[in-house]
Amino acid sequence: MKEINAAEFQQEVLNGGKVVLDFYSTECPPCEALAPKFEAMAELYGEKIKFLKIFRQGNRELAAELGVSSSPTLIFFDNGQKILDTISGGIKKSEIMDHLDRMLTLDEVAVIKANQKTTVSEYDVAILGGGPAGLTAGIYLGQAKIKTVLIDPALPGGYMGITHQVSNYPGFEQPQPGFMLAHYMSEQAKHTGIDFKVAVDITSVDLAKKEIVIDGFETIKAKKIIIATGTTPNTMNAPGEKEYKGKGISYCATCDAKYFTDKEVTVIGGGNSAVEEALFITKFASKITMIHQFDKLTANQTAIDELNKNEKISVMYECEPRKFEKRGDKMVTYVEDLKTKELKELVNDGVFVFIGFKSNISVLGDTLPELDGWGYIKTNEDRQTNIPDVFAVGDIVSKKYRQITTAVADGTIAAITISKEL
Ligand SMILES: Cc1cc2nc3c(=O)[nH]c(=O)nc-3n(C[C@H](O)[C@H](O)[C@H](O)COP(=O)(O)OP(=O)(O)OC[C@H]3O[C@@H](n4cnc5c(N)ncnc54)[C@H](O)[C@@H]3O)c2cc1C
Description:
The chain is α/β, with parallel strands linked by helices. It has eleven helices and 24 strands. The chain folds into three domains: about 1-115, Glutaredoxin (3-Layer(aba) Sandwich), CATH 3.40.30.10; about 120-230 and about 355-420, 3-Layer(bba) Sandwich (FAD/NAD(P)-binding domain); about 250-355, FAD/NAD(P)-binding domain, CATH 3.50.50. Flavin-adenine dinucleotide binds near residues 134, 154, 160 and 229.
């Protein structure tokens, strides 16, 4: 692998051969995550493909000419021509390999794959998940000089990283952009010396043996595992939902209701959390319209009685959202009446979705810890599961309140418990 500059571009890239060029920047977490993968790929494919790196900030004109607008960006060339699609951001090893394989013949790929060595590394603790819970566990374990690796299929930060403003995390006078909190926490964890393996594919997890395989051929053995994989919100699969997530559509009333003082909002759902959160939002909003798919709410009767007494809330029964759009500052929800099939427009200042979350347990393999009725992991007060040496922290734990503060508390408790055991 070689570092080049713009002056060498013609000679090194355009004068023939197969080339992959990495535009990287400094102070760029996804670039740091890519560097070891790029190096490993260079070792594996280096005889057939030239691996080059170029510093984006120092070669801005060339970057702009090649349409590079974020770091890292990988561009692929064959005989001076740009080929395949360009990849950027939190790039996974499997994505790079897929591109490199497409530059070679099937026979060449077969030879390379046969040379691919499996690796095994040993740690005291492996943390699965780099949200606030996993990062906090990492900070405490790193400071206790315990050999720790943090593994995440995405970049560190979890939900915190995609939350627009966090106003209830102590220590900051003003609301903080979630990505900054995520950045501070992950840098703090890195400074303690723990290893990060992020933007990786989780191939398998064996909680009984304490073995995790990533990217197909890297086995990580640990004495203890902390599960911090969080949750995934159930989605409606309606057009616009993804685009406006965090930009008009929220999944957290505790976090966002305060931004809707004297405003009108739409709440989607009709179970306990939807009803309780709608009641909470009435402290701020002037009017709430709930959209519920059935002809009755499915929350407990006490919550329904409270809701019926509240004049700010009305319910559209037997209706489902079909599409979301932004019109100026307003959010438009297209609502289908399930009986008449009529499509109506509901225009409000914001939309809250409470149709439940699922815990991210699907990658945990066959030996699952004991779960509650909703699929969340049961732990004792030290955040130990019923599987020896396996802990669970953060939103994946069976508990009542899921916030950044409760996640970091869990990470702290598990890490201190482990520090005393090891
Ligand atoms: C839209 C929204 C806004 C919110 N706003 C606030 C707020 O303002 N204040 C507040 O206190 N709370 C807020 N919350 C709640 C808060 O974000 C969560 O309680 C907190 O992030 C939970 O932390 P966690 O580490 O348990 O999980 P997460 O933050 O969910 O992180 C889990 C991590 O695990 C990774 N992961 C997933 N699968 C795997 C796997 N198989 N292997 C390894 N890693 C995996 C994910 O990539 C992710 O990085 C908000 C939640 C949402 C959804």
